[in-house]
Amino acid sequence: MPGCFSREIARKRGEEKAQEGAALAADCGIDASAKVCARSGTVAETTLGVAEEANADAIVLGPRGLTGIESLLIGSVAHAVIQSSDRPVVSVPSPKVIETRSQKAHEHTQTAI
Fold first, then answer.
1. DSSP 41-82
2. How far apart, in whole angstroms, are the C-alpha atoms of residue 30 and residue 24?
3. pLDDT at 33
4. pTM of this prediction exceeds 0.85
């Protein structure tokens, strides 16, 4: 069935994304680690639980650069984490979103000149 993943494929993709996020944080001088786990419950509940277990100083969330309904779903996870967290939560845009914003800013600057 299209769009369905096996647990193994989902875990591998999750690990790749987690490592990518940790590497981006390291590039910015942040000591971060990546962790992927499968649990029952919502993504927000799992995120909060893992942060508690790790005694994390903060939670950093990054959207996947999705649009439309998909972005609303991802945004709802960030919203739930922010509303329920007892530690700082930082939401950072994806590289794709940053590039799009940069291009729009450049176009706006060129139009204004």
1. S-HHHHHHHHHHHTT-S-EEE---S--HHHHHHHHHHHHHHH
2. 9
3. 83
4. no
In three-state secondary structure terms, 38 is coil
Tell me the two tokens of residue 111. 């139009």
CA 34 – CA 68 distance, rounded (Å): 28
First-last CA distance in the chain? 52
Q: What is the pLDDT of residue 69?
A: 58
- Cα atoms found within 13 Å of the Cα of residue 4, Cβ hemisphere only: 3
pLDDT range class, residue 70, cuts 50, 70, 90:
low
Domains of the chain in start order, with CATH, are 7-112 (3.40.50)
The sign of the dihedral angle between the CA atoms of 43, 54, 29, 90 is: positive
- Which amino acid would we find at residue 48? L
Q: Which amino acid makes up residue 109?
A: T
Angle of CA points 56, 59, 63, to nearest 5°: 155
Tokens of 72: 């609303």
